[in-house]
Amino acid sequence: MSFNIVRDNKKRVVIVGGGFGGLKLANKLKKSNFQVVLIDKNNYHQFPPLIYQVASAGMEPTSISFPFRKIFQHRKNFYFRMAEVRAIFPERNIIQTSIGKIEYDYLILAAGTTTNFYGNRHIEEEAIPMKNVSEAMGLRNALLANFERALTCATKQEQQELLNVVVVGGGATGVEVAGVLSEMKKFVLPNDYPDMSSNLMHVYLIEAGPRLLAGMSEKSSAHAEQFLREMGVNILLNKKVVDYRNHKVVLEDGSAIATRTFIWVSGITGVPIRNMDSSLIGRGGRIKVNEYNQVIGLNNVFAIGDQCIQLTDKKYPNGHPQLAQVAIQQGELLAKNLVRYEKGMKMKPFHYRNLGSMATVGRNRAVAEFNKVKMQGWFAWIMWLVVHLRSILGVRNKVIVLLNWIWNYLTYDQSMRMIVYARKAKEIRDREIIEATTHLGDDLMQEQQQKEQQKVERSE
Ligand SMILES: Cc1cc2nc3c(=O)[nH]c(=O)nc-3n(C[C@H](O)[C@H](O)[C@H](O)COP(=O)(O)OP(=O)(O)OC[C@H]3O[C@@H](n4cnc5c(N)ncnc54)[C@H](O)[C@@H]3O)c2cc1C
């Protein structure tokens, strides 16, 4: 397998990851003189802020995803390749991917983050993460299948395990998913399962810190907590989850909550890339970059968005929050900086313009902060709807999402509660097995080790 991209006289920019940052960068390089190669492990761009609505069967995955090939139709000097990036060899300007190696003149790492299980292998195996569309679909299927089984299972204990939902992580995602699940309990369960009391369903939200929404002000945290408690969510603060055993989430203080729907949205870590010098990895598994998003010590390798940590912005000495706007703004500036760099001009340093942050808790309930202005309740909720609707890619998706929201608001109902598992064709299953064990970059890593070994021997 190979990339099959002809090297022409243009400098090649390889972008890894077509999320908010990578996509903005690729779009902004449209009129540049570069050959642009975008690599993503999926063939579509996704919109994480609405993933929780997919997980709760409130929205179809296609409404918040957009295929790269459609976005870049008719684009010149542009190539998309669906592949997973595995290793980097900066001294040779090569990256290793699941479909082969590719050389670059400039490399931009924008692969975002993955769920952090903090080294707890057991929790990693048992918990349901909710970081992307595919995981959200997995959660939706598990949730609905558990409701179905709760009607027919043999014992009361099993029924309770099936109807308890435990969400671990009190950040924006945890708050949003707990809120939407409590709405499911109130509006969906009584209609869909009239022969089962909806009072049996319990939603727990567990947070290790002292408050929810740690990234927002204490006032917003308090409002979010109040909203969720009013909606019937059981909130446990200062509680650390240490294990999941026998269908029970086990807490550090020895207590346990029975559940078969164990949702883990408790933390993220930068997507790991093999052969990346460990001294370049900072807090949260993020790649250290300078004020121009240049990976420290590597002139032609850059990292943007969630995957990088930049400590040079005076207002954010500990790094920027991992938010869509940071990735978008970094992608936008980097497009300009690459052109400047090529022309031998000085690049411009990145300074984040904070456009605010918000989290929705349920219908008519949200918290929002714009600099010193803080709001909550209905007005914040409307702001949340408008901001997110504007940000979704594609007119079709905007219209579908809006109609969906109006329908749900008026009818208190979503109509997508089907349990659907995609069966992969044998050809795809076989290919995945091969790809999982090949193209790991071991050949170049061995070469590198041999060279280092020879150097040591010569110096002795
Ligand atoms: C559930 C959820 C809700 C969120 N809600 C909000 C919100 O309301 N507001 C907000 O501002 N932020 C929100 N965020 C955070 C926001 O989504 C991120 O900050 C933003 O997506 C970061 O953009 P990025 O371009 O750095 O990475 P991403 O958008 O994560 O994009 C990374 C891309 O890289 C690809 N990729 C990953 N690994 C590889 C690999 N090895 N090889 C090739 N491709 C790879 C992925 O498929 C993806 O397309 C939310 C995040 C989540 C998970």
From TrEMBL:
Keywords attached to this entry: FAD, Flavoprotein, NAD, Oxidoreductase, Transit peptide
Swiss-Prot/TrEMBL catalytic activity: a quinone + NADH + H(+) = a quinol + NAD(+)
InterPro entries in UniProt: FAD/NAD-bd_sf, FAD/NAD-binding_dom, NDH-2, NDH2-like_C
Keyword Flavoprotein: yes
Record EC number: 1.6.5.9
Domain External alternative NADH-ubiquinone oxidoreductase-like C-terminal, first and last residues per copy: 355-410
Gene Ontology molecular-function annotations: NADH dehydrogenase (quinone) (non-electrogenic) activity
Any Pfam family hit: NDH2_C
Domain FAD/NAD(P)-binding: 12-331
Keyword field contains Kinase: no
Top-rank taxon, per record: Bacteria
UniProt similarity note: Belongs to the NADH dehydrogenase family.
UniProt-recorded name of the protein: NADH:ubiquinone reductase (non-electrogenic)
Species the sequence originates in: Coprobacter fastidiosus NSB1 = JCM 33896
Lineage: Bacteria, Pseudomonadati, Bacteroidota, Bacteroidia, Bacteroidales
